[in-house]
Write a structure and sequence with these properties.
single chain; mainly alpha; 80 residues
């Protein structure tokens, strides 16, 4: 899942997808311990998707907490 795809999702869908990915990671970890995972690199991909989602959700929360002018300054790398 690319960051651009994640940014297009509504916030409630992002939270739902994050919950699903965390559950999938739990299952992959369990399967890995039981030696039932066919591709252990799946664990890395799911972890990265979780991190990507959490980062984008945090960015949106930061934008919502600050004013629109301050959010643009933060997004542009400038200080407000």
């Amino acid at each position: 899942m690319r960051a651009s795809e994640v940014r297009e999702l509504p916030s409630d869908e992002m939270v739902t997808r994050l919950t699903d990915l965390k559950e999938e990671l739990r299952g992959l970890r369990f399967g890995h311990v039981m030696q039932q995972v066919s591709n252990p690199l799946e664990i890395r991909a799911v972890r990265r998707d979780i991190a990507r989602l959490e980062t984008i959700i945090a960015e949106e929360n930061r934008k919502a907490a600050t004013g629109p002018a301050e959010a643009e300054a933060v997004a542009g790398g400038e200080e407000a």
